[in-house]
Design a protein that fits this description.
Elements: E1 4-10, H1 29-48, E2 53-60, H2 69-75, E3 84-89, H3 98-104, E4 109-115, H4 119-124, H5 131-143, E5 148-155, H6 162-175, E6 179-184, H7 192-195, H8 205-221, E7 225-228, E8 231-233, H9 240-246, E9 251-254, E10 259-262, E11 265-268, H10 273-277, E12 283-287, H11 291-298, E13 305-306, H12 307-314, H13 320-326, E14 334-337, E15 340-343, H14 345-349, H15 351-358
Parallel strand pairs: 1-2, 1-9, 2-3, 3-4, 4-5, 5-6
Antiparallel strand pairs: 6-8, 7-8, 10-11, 11-12, 13-15, 14-15
Helix pairs in contact: 1-2, 6-8
The protein binds iron/sulfur cluster (SF4).
Iron/sulfur cluster (SF4) binds near residues 20 and 22.
Length: about 350
């Protein structure tokens, strides 16, 4: 069996950030101990069925809250042919020596939430660490031997301006990290931000578009090449695990709220930690992997929907109706040629509408 991606969700956070709708809650040591055991059991059962992993991603929630328990879980993956092993770390929740212990356990990539290097913006997002602590964590990770280091940035934060964004972009440039993810703040229903949305000093839509384009340009000027709508990397430091999602490759997700795509089937664990600890099975979520799904995901990548990739995957060319639709979309949003079809940066800003239009006849 070909190796696939492994995602493990850690549904624990010390507090809840007011914009976040990820599945996570506070937990005590006993629950986190039991959770680590349950994850190891699930991994071992899948390994015994012949599954192998070449990329691993521990996300959340706050994986670093589990401390050395992460090392115990990583031990279960020792014999896997891993090419990339990422752990998300919250800068305010990293115990002494954790980076070195993770490195020794085979982890080679750390992803941390910066969101903003402006402390007032960080506080507005409910972040407790200040920018100086984030810088300190980056330096600690570098000292532990991590070269694959990613920072998350947020665009469209209450009160954010072009100048304050520049402070955050300069932070990323100067920190020596090799990857940046820059996400637009979405006000999700059911969050505290949703309830107070009329009182938040949110930049308007045009301002957010300008922030995005500025971030893309500044990151590129600092040597980070954009390879996906929200992701930028120094050459050779693209996230191999996340590329599997956008290339519609198989991955298994373990933990409540984790989704999987294995053997052409999609399935997920319900958002219920107790059920997961009690041995609940994942729930089927239909078939996946057809051309329309592949095209939709590929169009998130700067490389776009390529002729070569499509032929290798499906044995046919990008269907003519896609090119016919592309002729009617302004070039500021999209380009098409003999190699395939790809969105421009401005196209990325309206990607849902462009992709729906392009694939309307597929
Ligand atoms: S730390 Fe991350 S996962 Fe946890 S509440 Fe904040 S944004 Fe959500």
């Amino acid at each position: 069996m070909e190796p696939i991606g492994l995602y493990v969700h850690f549904p624990f956070c010390a507090g809840k950030c007011p914009y976040c709708d990820f599945y996570s809650a506070a937990a005590d040591d006993a629950v986190m101990d039991a959770y680590a055991d349950a994850v190891i059991d699930r991994i071992r059962a899948r390994q015994q069925a012949g599954e192998r992993y070449d990329t691993v991603y521990f996300g959340g929630g706050t994986p670093s809250l589990l401390g050395r328990r992460l090392v115990r879980i990583a031990e279960a993956l020792r014999d896997e042919p891993i090419r990339e092993f990422t752990v998300e770390c919250n800068p305010s929740r990293v115990e002494d020596g954790l980076f070195a212990a993770l490195r020794d356990a085979g982890v080679d990539r750390i992803s941390m939430g910066l969101q903003s290097a402006v402390d007032a913006e960080r506080r507005a997002l409910g972040r407790t660490a200040d920018a100086a602590l984030v810088r300190h964590r980056v330096e600690q990770a570098q000292a532990a031997g991590f070269r694959k280091l990613s920072l998350d940035l947020m665009l469209g934060i209450p009160g954010q301006t072009a100048d304050s964004l520049q402070t955050s972009l300069d932070f990323c440039r100067d920190a020596g990290v090799t990857h940046v993810s820059a996400y637009l703040l979405k006000i999700e229903e059911g969050t505290p931000f949703y309830k107070m949305r009329d009182r938040l000093a949110l930049p308007d839509e045009d301002a957010v578009c300008e922030l995005y384009l500025r971030a893309c340009e500044a990151l590129e000027d600092s040597g980070f090449k954009q390879y996906e709508i929200s992701n930028f990397a120094k050459p050779g430091f693209e996230s191999l695990h996340n590329l599997k999602y956008w290339d519609d490759r198989p991955y298994v997700g373990i933990g409540p709220a984790a989704h999987s795509f294995v053997g052409g089937k999609r399935f997920f664990y319900p958002r219920d930690t107790q059920a997961f600890l009690s041995g609940a099975f994942p729930v089927p979520d239909g078939d996946g992997g057809d051309f329309a799904e592949y095209a939709m995901l590929r169009l998130r990548l700067s490389e776009g929907l390529t002729e070569q990739g499509t032929r290798e995957r499906f044995g046919f060319s990008v269907p003519q109706p896609v090119y016919r639709r592309a002729e009617h979309i302004p070039p500021r949003y999209l380009s098409a040629d003999a190699d395939g079809v790809r969105l421009t940066r401005e196209g990325f800003l309206v990607s849902n509408a462009i992709i729906a239009e392009l694939l309307a006849d597929v």
